[in-house]
Amino acid sequence: QVLLVESGGGLVQAGGSLRLSCAASGLTFSSYDMGWFRQAPGKEREFVAAINWSGVETNTADSVKGRFTISRDNAKNTVYLQMNSLKPEDTAVYSCAAGLKLSRHNYMDYRRYGHWGQGTQVTVSS
Description:
Layout: E1 3-7, E2 10-13, E3 18-25, E4 33-39, E5 46-51, E6 58-60, E7 68-73, E8 78-83, E9 92-99, E10 115-116, E11 120-125
Parallel strand pairs: 2-11
Antiparallel strand pairs: 1-3, 3-8, 4-5, 4-9, 5-6, 7-8, 9-10, 9-11
């Protein structure tokens, strides 16, 4: 059984930082490309960042570029999302996802990811 468990969410003031973690089990983690998505109330799911299986290639959405950084530790089966300079508009439920053989053409498409975590709430107060 594949499990992706996010942690690290919470309430933070604007300008603050949070580090999200996503611990994976039940899959060969080092074979999977990983992504972070978020969804705010009343809005569609939004791509945030992705990292390929080796950690060499990363991509971030324009809305978070320069503020958020994705990384992974294959020895710990964990992917991270470092979020700095948080803004109220970053408030959402953040979910990690695992997919196989993604490319620069589809890593932003949530339908390409086969496994999802339950999500962790991030709330940024103004």
